[in-house]
Amino acid sequence: xxxxxxxxxxxxxxxxxxxxxxxxxxxxxxxxxxxxxxxxxxxxxxxxxxxxxxxxxxxxxxxxxxxxxxxxxxxxxx
Length: 78
Hints:
CATH architecture: Orthogonal Bundle
Order of helices and strands: EEHHH
CATH class: Mainly Alpha
Number of helices: 3
Helix content: 40-55%
């Protein structure tokens, strides 16, 4: 049985619903990092979005989440 290549989930950011599409492996990693930080996945996504909004980086939220996960796993960010 094959897994879907992308899973789309909805999250509320600043009072607005938005959808995020990530591969299942990234959702799992995001969940693990959120648990390690004592946060919900939605709360961690909101933090990532706030950091994205305050930077000059113009990537989309799904890409920003993937980069965040990579940096966390590399020990380059908290």
